[in-house]
Give the backbone structure.
Amino acid sequence: MAGHWIEWEKGLVRKPEVMRIARTLKCTPQHAAACCMMVWEWAEDVTENGVIPGVTAADVSFAAGVEGIGEALVGAGWLLVTEDSVVLPNWDRHNGEPSKRRAVDALRKRVQRREDRMRTLRGRMSS
């Protein structure tokens, strides 16, 4: 619902939650991180706020195409199961339009600062 990309956070593979998910799935942390991305990609299409009504952890696994990932996310605290939905905690921190806008703005500012530094260096070199 928030565009055609999702954020991959630097260090995702080394997060303790991802290592826990990898142990649960009996795979590498790299594969576990990719499996998480499959869930988050699917979730982007079905929720704006991280709440997905009428869905279970097993449904999350099925939707992502990764057996056991929903249950592994529950074990890691990255998926909460209620009576009538699943919830992705802190959804708005990394997903949705506001977080994507923040990410794009941060990138734009980094590029601008780099360009400013390059102009300053060029000015010093030509003096």
